[in-house]
Design brief:
By secondary structure, the chain is mainly β. The protein is built from 8 helices and 39 strands.
């Protein structure tokens, strides 16, 4: 009874804890159950990345952390903008990037579909820890949690004044992709009042690679090289090929501000308020699949410049109330508002018949995205052995965007979600526990869906626990997949609604069995998983009014399966090691082909050594296996064709060290990709050998 009471009274919902005294132990998480729970007691595969680990990496942004997190794959080029080569999304266990739900302090973020920007928008310096659950979590979080959930928890108020400040600079061997990051954060608690705040500035210069593309233009008979085009303006002014320095890391400037305040009206009633703001500017140069000319003829494979001015404001109000020892109530309302302004212009604007570069602006992808959410949940100790969580959520997503019509005018699309969920954490015996959960979502523009979860853990001893888990997930078509109708820099894209398709939600039944344990010197986890996907949503090449067009369909059923082994061992008091090995197999059950951009094997090895009391360092190696994809040959040309291709495996090796000048100050530095390993461009390329240095102060 006391053990459950302790869990109840310390309960933490969605990690946006409003208790002013944040004393969570590192091995405790909340994302997997919406209650505070020791990581060994969760019937799911969970990883926690701590602030200490983030600092040891010398990470600049969330992307740096995700590239080292176990079981995550960073994928580029997942959305229809010329700049997609420089933006990355996350996939988990072979599921699509749309199936990874990213939360900031437990809140959904308004932004692009597939979260291609947020990996570099969230500075590493503001993160207190990251909780990652692999596998479907729709029974708690609804849509978009098919592959898993990632919750980024920012630094929260503490007892006593704490100030962190830092600076970090890095660049590759040629001085490209250089990045400067400045950060400052403060946390304090004064009697019943607690507050925290942070501010960061991150600037990055571009990394580009020289590329050459053949140029094509449509004719009455199909397509032709410009020199053979019947329109003299095209044949006389536009060459048959262009060279372009294509941007793989953008020129960017990102400012981030955040704050939280909370007040303990009593030990049983606490109210908190969060505000987070960022603004950014990004620029890059690319090969545009399609860009209109002033001659009434579009040009394919034309060099383009793309720029973004974006900003997001998130505000949240929450309250925690404990009317009795056995019951805890929590309410939260929040709003995430995102404004995106993109301009895509022709680099060779004069040759394409425009008086200025601004006059050539076409295919801009502007958007105003607004997410409003209201949540209410209760945690009830029903008996000595049952901890019950029930809750409800209302979410409204409105997207005004220029991608819903061929004209560059804003059109509004809206979806809303209503849901109820319940969960029972059942302590069956001293060594056996189980969790049962269910959720029902009613969605305005898609079929409603019920999802279930059942898991259990049997602890033989601390070094040997067996767990099994069955979970369901689903993903409703996003607004782009339903309604886009735009000739984009990646080609004509027509959503299922305009094509007349009945696009059903993608659903997953996931099975997992794991065996693990830990003691003072070692921890390990071995897990086998199988995901059975029904009505998989995928982008396909079809036809709209006689023109080739990308659209979205329930193409087939699919499955992903594999094994993950994680091992951490403290070799001595000064030397520790980590090892991760995964095998992943995926299949489109209709074509019997592999799903795209899913590495068959991933291996990570790391060693950390404390040379002296002040000096420490480490080495980290990562091997990423072959990845299959569809290669488009002669893109835009009359003889455009597609063939199955394989991206080669690659291995990167990183070194880093840190030195404590005093209890307050420390300096650090490192070299990433020390062997200058090349990564194929289709995977996002690599900036090469990268050097970084930094300094931190903790007051």
């Amino acid at each position: 009874m006391n053990k459950i009471k302790l869990s109840l009274l310390a309960a933490l919902l969605l990690s946006s804890q409003i208790t002013a005294n944040d004393t969570i132990e590192l091995e405790q998480i909340s994302i997997a159950t919406k209650t505070q729970k020791n990581i060994d007691g969760v019937a799911a595969t969970v990883e926690v990345v701590t602030q200490k680990e983030i600092e040891q990496m010398g990470a600049q942004s969330l992307k740096d952390i995700m590239e080292r997190a176990e079981g995550l794959n960073v994928m580029y080029g997942t959305f229809p903008n010329a700049s997609s080569k420089s933006k990355a999304s996350i996939t988990i266990r072979g599921m699509s990037p749309n199936g990874t739900l990213i939360l900031l302090d437990g809140r959904r973020l308004a932004g692009e579909v597939q979260n291609p920007y947020d990996l570099e928008r969230i500075p590493a310096s503001v993160i207190e820890r990251i909780e990652i659950v692999k596998g479907p979590m729709s029974s708690l979080y609804g849509a978009d949690a098919v592959g898993g959930v990632i919750n980024i928890i920012t630094k929260r108020p503490k007892d006593g004044l704490k100030i962190d400040a830092g600076v970090r600079y890095g660049a590759n061997s040629d001085g490209d992709a250089d990045n400067l990051n400045l950060n400052l954060s403060i946390q304090d608690k004064i009697d019943k009042f607690a507050y925290s705040a942070y501010a960061t500035l991150s600037t990055t210069k571009p990394y580009t690679q020289r590329e050459n593309e053949n140029v094509w233009a449509p004719t009455p008979a199909g397509k032709a090289a410009p020199s053979a085009h019947p329109n003299p303006n095209v044949s006389n002014n536009i060459p048959d090929s262009y060279e372009q320095d294509v941007t793989y890391r953008e020129d960017s400037e990102v400012y981030t501000l955040g704050s939280r305040v909370s007040y303990d009206f009593s030990s049983d009633f606490i109210v908190g308020f969060d505000a987070n703001y960022f603004t950014e500017e990004r620029e890059g140069a690319y090969i545009g699949y399609f860009h209109p000319s002033a001659y009434g003829v579009p040009i394919f494979n034309a060099p383009v410049n793309s720029s973004d001015k974006n900003r997001r404001l998130d505000v949240s109000l929450d309250a925690l109330y404990k009317p009795m020892d056995e019951l805890e109530l929590k309410a939260r309302v929040y709003n995430s508002n995102y404004k995106k302004r993109n301009k895509t212009t022709a680099r060779e604007y004069a040759a394409m018949g425009y008086a200025s570069e601004d006059a050539s602006a076409q295919n801009g992808m502007d958007a105003d995205v607004d997410i409003k959410v209201a949540e209410l949940s209760a945690l009830y100790m029903a008996s000595d052995n049952h901890l019950v969580t029930i809750g409800g959520e209302y979410r409204d997503e409105t997207r005004d965007s220029s991608v819903f019509s061929q004209a560059n005018t804003m059109t509004t699309k809206e979806m809303d979600y209503r849901s109820l969920y319940a969960q029972d954490e059942w302590q069956i015996g001293e060594k056996l526990s189980a969790i049962l959960g269910a959720r029902y979502d009613e969605i305005s523009n898609a079929d409603s869906k019920a999802t279930f979860r059942l898991g259990g853990i049997y602890e033989f001893d601390k070094m040997a626990s067996l767990r099994a888990n069955f979970a369901q997930g689903y993903r409703v078509p996003d607004i782009r997949e339903m309604y886009i109708f735009k000739q984009t820099p990646s080609g004509l894209q027509v959503g299922a609604d305009a094509m007349g398709y009945d696009l059903k939600p993608e659903s997953t039944n996931a099975y997992e069995i794991g065996f693990g344990g830990r003691n003072a010197d070692m921890s390990y986890d071995l897990v086998f998983f199988y995901n059975d996907v029904k009505d998989m949503i995928a982008q396909t090449l079809g036809s709209y009014n006689g023109s080739a067009a990308y659209t979205f369909e329930n193409v087939a059923d699919a499955n992903t399966k594999g094994m993950e082994l994680s091992l951490k061992y403290k070799i001595s008091s000064d030397l520790s090691s980590s090892f991760y090995w995964s095998e992943l197999r995926t299949e489109n059950e209709a074509t019997k082909k592999d799903l795209e951009f899913q590495p068959e094997k991933t291996i990570m090895i790391g060693f950390d050594y404390k040379f002296t009391h002040a000096l420490s360092g480490g080495i980290f190696a990562k091997y990423v296996g072959e990845q299959h994809y569809t290669n488009v040959l002669n893109i835009g040309a009359p003889n455009e064709s597609r063939m199955e291709a394989t991206a080669d495996s690659f291995t990167t090796l990183d070194l880093r060290s840190e030195y404590k000048l005093s209890k307050i100050f420390e300096i650090y530095g490192g070299i990433n990709n020390i062997a200058d390993e090349k990564v194929e461009d289709v995977l996002g390329s690599n900036v090469g050998r990268y050097y970084f240095v930094g300094a931190r102060a903790h007051f």
